[in-house]
Design a protein that fits this description.
Layout lengths: L1 H23 L2 H10 L2 H18 L1 H8 L34 H37 L1 H16 L2 H12 L3 H11 L1 H15 L3 H8 L4 H9 L4 H24 L11 H8 L8 H27 L7
Helix pairs in contact: 2-14, 3-5, 3-14, 5-6, 5-8, 5-9, 5-12, 5-14, 6-9, 7-8, 9-12, 10-11, 12-13, 12-14, 13-14
Length: 310
């Protein structure tokens, strides 16, 4: 009898714990658990966090430890210019005697800022237009989708180069160029998600209760369509970083003496055969950061897929 009572007590406790866990489970909670099992996504997350911490704390230690990354010396000696990696200069120095590690860290500030802000602009425009096209349909859908087709027919990089040639090279104009050209894919993703969500019963119930269109979109439709947007936005940050590096490499992006990964590669390519660290170090920074955001987005896509079983 004692063993039966103990067994019943344990069963009741397990049932209560199971019921409690079932009540507290959410889409994002389940996604976090699945994301933790993806080793590549976790490593990518660590890389991104490390780059963010280095960029945010750069002003506290870089100039004091490594020197001013924007300083242009007027008396560069042979020993200062293009020094190989040492303990004093872990990544070596560039053609003007500036510490490459310091410039890579400050270049991370620019790249992450451009990546996040440009993606934020593109995602906001895409979400607004995609929501209008999917929710109202008909004329709105036709006009917005044809506008999307026109923008997608234009070569992305060529359009960005032409836009910056008109506006002038600057960090602000890079935000505008990338943000105003990158909304098309977000718009299609949001439209596709909302077309599936808006047919659900809770949307019809909200409409029957007298909820307005704006309230339905903001309260019921967009929150349930955010999973695909988060995935695409994460991948788009890496794409924006790559675009900024390419534009800076061509001389249409960040201007010297401001540190930029693309600008560092452009300046160091003439010395690639004799001083490869001038190109390798910023190249690894670009490769690692873009790959990290891509793998994070890929991991989020798998984690947020409700069809995936543990």
């Amino acid at each position: 009898m004692l063993s039966v009572s103990i067994g019943k007590a344990k069963g009741q406790r397990l049932d209560k714990e199971g019921a409690k866990s079932a009540r507290t489970r959410t889409l994002w909670g389940d996604a976090l658990q699945r994301l933790k099992k993806n080793k590549l996504a976790v490593i990518s997350f660590v890389w991104v966090v490390l780059m963010i911490l280095l960029a945010l704390t750069a002003d506290l230690w870089v100039v004091r430890v490594l020197g001013d990354p924007s300083y242009v010396s007027t008396e560069v000696t042979a020993t200062m210019s293009r020094m190989p990696p040492t303990l004093a200069h872990p990544f070596g120095t560039d053609e003007l005697g500036r510490d490459i590690l310091a410039r890579v860290v400050y270049g991370a500030q620019v790249s992450l800022r451009v990546g996040v802000l440009a993606t934020l602009i593109a995602t906001t425009i895409g979400m607004i237009l995609g929501s209008l096209a999917a929710y109202f349909g008909r004329l709105f859908d036709a006009i917005i989708m044809r506008l999307t087709d026109i923008f997608m027919a234009v070569p992305y990089t060529l359009f960005a180069i032409a836009l910056l040639a008109v506006l002038g090279p600057s960090e602000r104009n890079i935000y505008i160029a990338i943000g105003c050209l990158g909304w098309t894919s977000v718009c299609r993703v949001v439209r596709s998600s909302i077309l599936q969500v808006k047919e659900n019963d809770y949307v019809a119930a909200a409409r029957a209760l007298g909820a307005g269109n704006l309230r339905i979109i903001l309260r019921h439709i967009l929150p349930n369509s955010m999973a695909s947007v988060v995935v695409y936005a994460t991948m788009s940050i890496g794409s924006a970083i790559m675009t900024e590096a390419a534009l800076s490499y061509l001389g249409l992006g960040i201007q010297p003496p401001t540190a930029s990964w693309g600008l560092m590669i452009s300046a160091g390519q003439s010395f690639l055969s004799v001083s490869p660290w001038l190109v390798i170090c910023p190249g690894i920074a670009i490769l690692g950061t873009v790959l990290a955001f891509t793998l994070m987005g890929d991991g989020l896509r798998d984690a947020l897929d409700v069809k995936v079983t543990d």
